[in-house]
Every structure is written in C-alpha cells, then in structure tokens.
Design brief:
By secondary structure, the chain is an alpha/beta fold. Helix content is 21%, strand content 29%. InterPro entries: FAD-oxidoreductase/Apoptosis, FAD/NAD-bd_sf, FAD/NAD-binding_dom, FAD/NAD-linked_Rdtase_dimer_sf, Reductase_C.
C-alpha cells in the first residue's frame, strides 16, 4: 500500500501545473522532450527570441560558411513530439517571481508553476555602434548571421579581417583559407586559443595558422574601422599603427550571457550567468536555492566538485544537451530521484586540417606536458596539471585517447599522468602552461571558473571594452 501511495504522489507531482521554458535552442528543446518522456502531461510553453525553430549552432562556423550546408537547414533533430505552445520571435523581458509570470516583449504575461531558464548567450558586438553598422561588419552567433556572412564570403572579398582568435575566430580563419580568401586575424593575446588552452598550445595554433597562409597579428587590437562613401567597411586601424585594407570584418569577441531580462527578479544572476546547485535549481540573491526555477545550458553557473567547488560556466554543446535533460528530470522528480549535472567539460574544433578535442578545465591548470605523439606532425596529446593532479587534456588529431584522459581527470589521478599506450615523446617534462594572468587582454575561454559565491560578479578574467 505504501509503495502504491508513493507512486501516486510521484505521478501527481510529474503532472502538476504549468511549465515554461525560456530559451528555444538545444537546452530548451532537449528539456521539453525529457519532460514529456518523464510523464509531464501539463501545459508546456517554450519562448524564444528567434523566429526559427531550435537549430544546431556548431555547423554555422564550419559547414555553413564553407557552403556545404544552408543556414536554414541546420534544425536540431526532434526526438519526439513535445506538444508545446511555441512562442517564437518574441523575447522575455522580465520575471515576476511573486506572481510567477514571465513578461514578454509584446506585453503578454505568461504564468508558470515551474520555470526553466535557458536563454544562453549572444555575440559581443563591435564596441563602436557606428562602425558596427557599416556594411561588411559581422558577428557570428545565429543562423541569420551565418547566412549573411556566407553570402559575403561567397562574393570573393579582397581581404577578410577576423578580430579575435578563439575557437570560432580560428575556425572562420580556416574556412577563409579553404575558400582561397586572404585573411588577417588580429588577436590581443600572445596567440590563438590562449584563453582556453594556454600559451604552449597557442604557439602551436599560431604556427598552424601561419603555415596555412593566415596573416596572424598577435599582441595587437583593432582600434577603429573606416568605411567608404557608400557605408561599406574598407579599412581597419590597428594598435601598432598599421592600417589594413579590408572588405569583410568579423568581430569574434566572445559572448554575453542573456541575463538582463532577470534584473529585479531577485535571482543570483549577472554577467557570468545564473547560479544554481548541481541539480540545476537556481539560487536567489541570498544564496537560497529556489524550488520552482531551474537553469540549463550556456547560461547556467554551477559548482563543480573537481574544481574546488568553484562555480563553472561552459559554452559547450554537451553541457546544453545533457544539462537540459537533467534540469527537466529534476523539475518533475521528487528529491530522492533527482540527480546532479556534473559534466566534465568537453569540446571539439576543426581547423586547418586538424581535429582538436579537449576535456576538463584547462585554465584551472598551471602546467602542461606533451604525453603522446608529435607536435611537429600536429598529432599529439597533452595533459594539464595543478598541484600534482591532472585537471584537463587536449588532443590534436589524437582524439581516440581523450576518453582515457577524461577517466584520469574524473578520479583525480596524479600529474604527470602515467604514459598511455604507445608513441611517447622523449622526456615528457612538464612545463608552464602559460595561461593569461588575471586582467590580461584576451578573449574569454569557453569554460570559466567564477569563484565560490553564487552572487559573485567578478571572475579571474576581465573583458575590457573601452580599449582594445
């Protein structure tokens, strides 16, 4: 009888009330599907500021720009019908927790009993609005962005300038070279990818770019863009005093988390996202966990046991996919059935003929060691360490070993790690990983540790928009 009563309580809880998901991308879609899979039968509303149905973003900087796929042909596969009220093309502008309503840009108020925040990020725009409005100046985040940029590249510009050499900027530079276009990359840091992978790997990435004909400028910023009489960008002025003639400029300056609509809601939200516990439940500004508001995807900021319980934000596909599913499960589960979302960050990037894959949090480390393969051949594995423990790994065309390194990280194995398999380089001596010092002028890594306080607004890296 007790078991039957518990089953009835669980079923009633799963079906209870109205659920609203704000954010119609990967995390939001997977959460909606999971809610239905888990037995939620109540009203479900999905709100998204873009008019398109949920689509996949990684192909935008790769296949779409190459012309191998159309920007409007990247819809995410639907795993099942979700029977939802889709509100697309209208942004959420506010949250009233007292009456449990989401305010929309069109003035509508959408009531909820449980809410999932999955509003993700947007591209950081060019710092000068007048220059940003010049024809030929782009950012890349949405399918519309990718479609417009693809058309500009297909027109055969004389020179493309990419400002920022993170993963997306480097991938775009690779595409430009594949298309036979002259491309300059301007990066404020000492090399490409240093925010995410450190200076040792940044040196290797810089060689890769230059070997493929990229005009890579490091340690410089772009101070101004100039247009012609028709309003098309034609020149860029760099901080070293040089001037470039350009026809297309892509600002790859990192992202901004979409939290402004939560101002005044009393949640622990800010420029680093929305703080939550390991079960995706949101904290309020006093550090008290909420019972009815959850968060998932790029905007979620949660403590991680492997990294001193610091709050971690990560803009990775797997985090949005799995995080949306875990959040949805916990939304319709009683406490004993809830589970944590403690992903080991993982990423991949294809550029200049090399498949780069990584796992863990590189910027947490202070040392690196090449463990397998050949740096010269661009086929190797490297491990990152801190305080005698392996905390991350990266591979270049050696991804089959990534699972091995991930398992070491998950059990806090010693650093340097035991040599795996075969193909060990001579020496295997750890060296400084050369991550940027706090406040250094560099773009954000895709994974950022943001301290221990759920309401903390600061972090190790500071983005500066006034001077580039």
């Amino acid at each position: 009888m007790r078991a039957e009563l518990i089953a009835d309580v669980v079923a009633e809880f799963k079906a209870y009330g109205r659920i609203v998901i704000v954010g119609a991308s990967l995390a939001g879609l997977r959460a909606a599907e999971t809610l239905r899979d888990e037995g939620f039968t109540g009203p479900l509303t999905i709100i998204g500021d873009e008019k398109q149905e949920p689509y996949d973003r990684p192909p935008l900087s790769k296949q779409v720009l190459k012309g191998l796929a159309r920007a409007d042909h990247t819809l995410l596969p639907r795993m099942r019908k979700v029977d939802a009220d889709w509100r697309l093309g209208v942004a959420a502008t506010g949250l009233d927790r007292r009456v449990k309503q989401v305010r929309l840009a069109d003035g509508e108020q959408v009531p909820f009993d449980r809410l999932l925040i999955a509003t993700g990020t947007r591209s950081r725009p060019w710092f000068n609005p007048q220059e940003a409005a010049l024809e030929g100046v782009f950012t890349l985040r949405t399918a519309d962005d990718a479609g417009r940029l693809r058309a500009a590249l297909a027109a055969g510009p004389g020179r493309v300038l990419i400002v920022g050499a993170g993963f997306i900027g480097s991938e775009m530079a690779s595409v430009c070279r594949e298309l036979g276009l002259a491309v300059t990359v301007a990066e404020r840091a000492e090399g490409p990818l240093v925010g995410a992978l450190g200076g040792v790997i940044g040196d290797i990435a810089a060689e890769m770019q230059r070997d493929h004909g990229v005009d890579l400028r490091t340690g410089v910023s772009v101070e101004a863009l100039e247009g012609d009489a028709q309003g098309h960008v034609r020149r860029a002025r760099l901080s070293d005093g040089t001037t470039l003639d350009v026809d297309v400029v892509v600002a790859s300056l990192g992202s901004i988390r979409n939290t402004e609509w939560l101002e005044g809601a009393g949640l622990a939200s800010g420029r680093w996202g929305v703080a939550c516990d390991a079960g995706c439940r949101v904290f309020d500004i006093n550090g008290v966990v909420t019972d009815s508001i959850f968060v998932a995807g790029d905007i979620a900021r949660a403590p991680h046991v492997l990294y001193d319980y610091q709050f971690l934000v990560q803009e990775h596909w797997d985090n949005a996919d799995v995080g949306g599913r875990v959040a949805a499960h916990n939304m319709v589960s009683l406490e004993p059935q809830r589970r944590p979302h403690l992903p080991l960050p993982a990423f991949w990037s294809g550029q200049f003929g090399v498949n780069i894959k990584g796992v863990g949090v590189g910027p947490f480390a202070d040392e690196i060691v090449i463990t397998q393969g050949s740096v010269t051949d661009r086929r190797f594995a490297a491990a990152y360490g801190r305080n005698g423990r392996i905390v991350a790994a990266v591979t270049f065309n050696h991804g089959k070993w990534l699972e091995y390194y991930g398992a070491l990280i998950e059990r806090s194995a010693p650093f340097p790690p035991p040599p795996p398999g075969y193909d060990h380089p001579d020496g295997m001596q750890p060296m400084p990983a050369r991550f940027p010092t706090p406040g250094a002028p560099t773009g954000w890594p895709d994974v950022v540790l943001t301290g221990h306080d759920p309401t903390e607004r600061g972090a190790e890296y500071e983005y500066r928009t006034k001077k580039r």
